[in-house]
Amino acid sequence: MEFKTATMADFDVAFDYIEKLWTYNTYDKEVIRKVYADVLADENSFAFFLMDGDTYHGFCHGAYFNTFWLSGMTCYVSSIITNEDERGKGCGVKLMDHAKELAKARGCKALVLDSGMPRTQAHRFYEIYGFEKSCYGFDYYLEP
Asked: Contact, 126 vs 113, CB < 8 A?
């Protein structure tokens, strides 16, 4: 298996993963297309796929940022998802390992992520991988 940097040509595949990751949300495909293009153009973001030939096995997206909390660069993994029928076969580990390599190359001190409350299977994966529960996540939505 290999890693493929995401491109606009992969948008439909990425969108499919995004919809499956947060099934309790709804998405406007054209709005997500613009966000995806912005992510690809941002030097502080990354997005890649795990592939075997022409077969997609997973998707990962994140961003690098400075934080006072960790006194330096941090890598936020905002999306990581594998094909449902392949879970438990090492694809998630490969995605996370690659994100970790990218973070180290950028001088990051940590990988951080948050995960929706309903995603208990993902929570088990994160803990087995070595992540520690460190906080509660809160959202405050701004009106347009």
From this structure: yes
What is the C-alpha separation between 96 and 77, in angstroms, rounded?
Answer: 9
> pTM to 2 decimals?
0.91
CATH topology of domain 2-129: Aminopeptidase (3.40.630)
65 phi and psi angles, rounded to 5 deg: -155, 155
Q: What is the pLDDT of residues 91-143, one digit of tens each?
A: 999 999 999 999 999 999 999 999 888 888 889 999 999 999 988 888 888 99
* Residue 79 phi, psi dihedral angles, 5° rounding: -145, 130
What residue spans define the domains of the chain? 2-129
Task: Report helix, strand or coil for 31.
Answer: helix
pLDDT band at 23 (very low <50, low <70, confident <90, very high): confident
Residue 40 in contact with residue 6, Cβ under 8 Å?
A: yes
Helix ranges, the chain (H): 11-21, 29-41, 91-105, 120-129
From residue 19, alpha-carbon distances to 14, 89, 101, 123, 139 in Å are: 9, 22, 26, 19, 19
